[in-house]
Specification:
With 129 residues, the chain is mainly alpha-helical. It has a two-stranded antiparallel sheet with strand order 1-2. It is built from six helices and two strands; from the N terminus they run ααααββαα. The chain is globular.
Length: 129
Amino acid sequence: MADQLARARVIKKLPKGLELSQFSVLNHLARTTDERTPAQLAKAFHVTRGAMTNTLQKLETAGYVHIRPDWNDARQKFVGISPSGRRARDEAIQAISPVISAVGESLGEAQIRAVLPILRDLRALLEGD
């Protein structure tokens, strides 16, 4: 329930036309210097390759990512964030920051620090399946 409520608040603040899944991929790509394959991205986000392909196609159409073939293996592609994708990600971060800050201020640093190890353990447990 908390996840759904948090997502709803964040989605309302995202720039028009940018979906949460698209923002998540842009954020992931912006935090790395290497390109990723669609399969690597699908695995990182725990979605099917088809779902990731759909998200990447939308991002490419918007000009937010570049998708290029692997020059050594024509069956594989690489995805990198474009300058406009980086700008869209930065705008989204600015838009959602007040929501995240408000939650942080309401809960306080001590409560957040206390719950983070529990959430990490829960994530590790659930990823183990």
